[in-house]
Write a structure and sequence with these properties.
- The two termini are about 35 Å apart.
- The protein has one domain.
- By secondary structure, the chain is mostly helical.
- Helix content is about 75%, strand content about 0%.
- The longest helix has about 30 residues.
- It is elongated.
Length: about 100
C-alpha cells in the first residue's frame, strides 16, 4: 500500500499541472473516472490472458501477462516523461 501511494501522489500532482486553473476540477473528475474504467478493463484483460484449465491445474500464460505489464510500464514511464516536459514548458511560458 505504501509503495503504491508513493507512486500515485506524484502522478496526480504532475497531471494536475496540465489543465488551466479554472478547468482543473473537471479535468480531475474525468481523469478519476478514466482511471476506474482502465482498472476494470485491465482486470478483464488480465483474466482473459491468465487461464486455469480446471481448479487443480496451475495458472497458464502468467508469463505473457508479465511481459505485457513490463511493456506497458515502459510506455507509461515514457508518457510521464513527456507530460513532465509539457508541464515545465507551460510553466516557463507562464500558462
Amino acid at each position: 500500500m505504501i509503495s503504491m501511494m508513493s507512486r500515485v501522489v506524484p502522478a496526480i500532482v504532475l497531471t494536475s499541472g496540465l489543465p488551466k486553473m479554472q478547468d482543473r476540477g473537471a479535468f480531475m473528475s474525468i481523469n478519476s473516472s478514466l482511471q476506474q474504467i482502465a482498472g476494470g478493463v485491465a482486470a478483464i484483460v488480465g483474466g482473459l490472458i491468465v487461464v486455469q484449465k480446471n481448479k487443480y491445474s496451475p495458472l497458464e500464460h502468467y508469463n505473457i501477462l508479465g511481459i505485457l505489464i513490463s511493456l506497458l510500464s515502459t510506455l507509461s514511464i515514457l508518457l510521464v516523461y513527456l507530460v513532465s516536459k509539457m508541464v515545465k514548458q507551460r510553466k516557463a511560458i507562464g500558462l
